[in-house]
Amino acid sequence: MSRKPVPAQAGERSRAEVVFDRPQLMAQLFGQFDQNLLLLESRLGVYITARGNKVGLEGTAESVASARDVLHALYNRIAHGEMVDSGLIEAVIAMSAEPTLTGIIRAEDRGSPPQIMIRTRKKTIVPRTIAQAHYMRELLNNDVIFALGPAGTGKTYIAVAQAVAQLITGSVQRLILSRPAVEAGEKLGFLPGDMKEKVDPYLRPLYDALNDCLPAEQVERRIASGEIEIAPIAFMRGRTLADAFIILDEAQNTTPAQMKMFLTRFGENSRMVVCGDPRQTDLPGGMAASGLNDAVKRLEGVEGISISRFGAGDVVRHPIVGRIVEAYEGVDG
């Protein structure tokens, strides 16, 4: 890899060389046509040269140090089976600049496994932002967790991964995934088929998250046996859910009565996660009618209940999604 140097940022220029001990991982680290290194150059203002398993860095002392940290973090994630894309690179760059995550970044520098992770049958999930790191800790330490924030921040995905991990280890006996069946701003009319076929379109994102964590045949087998249950919130009425990991997605579309009903299903040896974006309710009454907003006001500070909040900076989809969320939050805020 050889190109014209990137114009230097203000400050004294510095040079460094990073040597990696597994040359077979370099193709994943560099990306197709070195696209990952090009992204690092543009984002961090450094000039990067690559030869074999050696990477040269040139720029200001601060930008070189950041690039070195990010390269080590990405390399370690690849070594632990994670795929690198532009979203991950953007997230790791943000994490490297976050002083409260120094421990996580430094652990990756040393080549040891990340300190916070969720292992499932198909992949290992590690936090991409400080909010995700906090959320993953809360999933281990509290009985009821509210995850609030915009789409693309990993609220539901991480909760499903944690639920699958606990189901695999036997710390819970059942995984229950629920969603309110509310149309998102358009009338769909009467859907054909039986009850399952009618509600499955609303629950599709939950199936997608499950299939990302478990082989498809295991998902089907566990659903058939009742170990995994995916159902609209209306199906929760009158039940006590013990020995279960329970997830409510799109909770902003519940009414206060539905939310109270759902939360009081909590049973022995269970964990409950409530995910939603308080600003995106599809209920006719808007935010004032949302059971999620009502529950957060009532329950924040109650022992055993934690609230994890995500913002536009925590979006881990394509970087443009974060910019779109930021623009809309600015208008609404």
Descriptive tags:
11 strands; 333 residues; 3-stranded antiparallel beta sheet; alpha/beta; 17% strand
Order of helices and strands: EHHEEHHHEEHEHEHHEEHEHEH
- Principal-axes geometry comes out as elongated
| Oligomer category | single chain
Protein structure class = alpha/beta
Spatial gap, N to C terminus:
45 Å
Low-confidence stretches: 4-10, 99-113, 184-188
What is the overall number of helices?
12
Q: Tell me about the largest β-sheet.
A: 6 strands, parallel
Q: What's the mean pLDDT score?
A: 81
Percent in strands: 15-25%
**What percent of residues adopt helix (DSSP H or I)?**
40-55%
Counting DSSP E segments of at least 2 residues, the number of strands comes to: 11
Largest beta sheet: strand ordering:
8-7-9-10-6-11
- What is the CA-based Rg, rounded? 22 Å
Structure overview:
Helix 3 (61-79) crosses helix 4 (86-96) and helix 10 (256-263) packs across helix 11 (291-299). 42% of the residues lie in helices and 17% in strands. A six-stranded parallel sheet has the order 8-7-9-10-6-11, sandwiched between helices. Residues 4-10, 99-113 and 184-188 have low confidence and may be disordered. It has 333 residues and is of the alpha/beta class. The longest helix has 19 residues, at 61-79. The termini are far apart. The relative contact order is 0.12. The protein has helices spanning 26-30, 35-44, 61-79, 86-96, 102-109, 130-141, 155-169, 195-213, 216-225, 256-263, 291-299, 319-332; strands at 13-19, 47-51, 54-60, 118-119, 124-125, 144-148, 174-179, 228-232, 244-248, 271-276, 305-309.
